[in-house]
Amino acid sequence: MGVDVNTHIKANIKVKRDFTGVVLAGGKSSRMGTDKADLVLKIKRYCKTHVIY
Known about the structure:
Strand order of the largest sheet: 1-2
Helix content: 10-25%
Structural class: alpha+beta
Distance between the termini: 44 Å
Number of helices: 2
Radius of gyration: 21 Å
Number of strands: 2
Shape: elongated
Strand content: 5-15%
C-alpha cells in the first residue's frame, strides 16, 4: 500500500520545452581535411542535416 515515489514525482514535474542552444561547428577537421561548417552531404550542409530545430 505504499506510494510509488517515481509516479508521484513524474506527476508533479512540469516539462519546459523552450530552450536556447548554441551549435559550434567550424574549423578545419584533421580527419576530413575541410571546414566542418562547409561540409556538404547529399546536397545539404552538414550543420543543417544534423541539427534539430
